Amino acid sequence: MQVFPSVRSLERLAGAVMCEQDEAWPEARYFSEGKISELYEERRAPEPPTEEQRLEYDKMARKAIEASLELADRMEAA
Hints:
With 78 residues, this protein is an all-alpha fold. It has 2 domains: 1-44, no CATH class; 48-78. 72% of the residues lie in helices and 0% in strands. It is built from 3 helices and no strands. The longest helix has 27 residues, at 51-77. It is elongated.
């Protein structure tokens, strides 16, 4: 004797289980509310840089541009 007398009975049972899961899904909470809010806090835009940070970024950008121009001049001369 088989557990399920026909393929159709197995399909009905599987369908019923899936329907039950589908109804339970919206009410389920897999992450705590606190954990979810942490994720959203991390995605917020960062604080604008301070004046000191901005000046440091400008200085680094100028150095990078100057180094790139020097490299381009050396490659052109070669």
